[in-house]
Amino acid sequence: MSAQTDTPSSVTTVYKVSGMSCGHCEGAVSGELSELAGVTSVKAVASTGEVTVVSDAALDESAVRAAVDEAGFELAGLA
């Protein structure tokens, strides 16, 4: 499975985020990423450290990194 999947109307990207350990962590990361322009859906899973983001277009990695950092976690890269 690739880390990024494009469809005609959206882009799905799976990121690895280190440090998430519970539902509160998932909510913090999801909340910050949801505020990025163009993001339509975020699903964070603490047990795997994966965060799936659906957006209108590819996201700038520095913006994603800043949002994850603001939530108190570290973006480890693409899953």
Structural summary, described in words:
The protein is globular. It has helices at residues 23-34, 61-70, and strands at 4-6, 11-18, 39-45, 50-55, 74-78. Strand 1 (4-6) and strand 2 form a beta hairpin. The protein has 79 residues and is an alpha+beta fold.
Give a brief rundown of this model.
The chain contains 2 helices and 5 strands. It is α+β, with helices and mostly antiparallel strands and 79 residues long.
Keywords, separated by commas or semicolons:
2 helices; 79 residues; globular
Describe the biggest sheet?
A: 5 strands, antiparallel
**Order of helix and strand elements from N to C terminus:** EEHEEHE
Counted beta strands: 5
What gyration radius follows from the Cα positions, in whole Å?
A: 11 Å
Amino- and carboxy-terminal Cα gap: 9 Å
Q: What is the global morphology?
A: globular
Quaternary structure state of the chains depicted: single chain
**Amount of beta strand:** 35-45%
The percent range for helix content is 25-40%
Tally of helical runs: 2
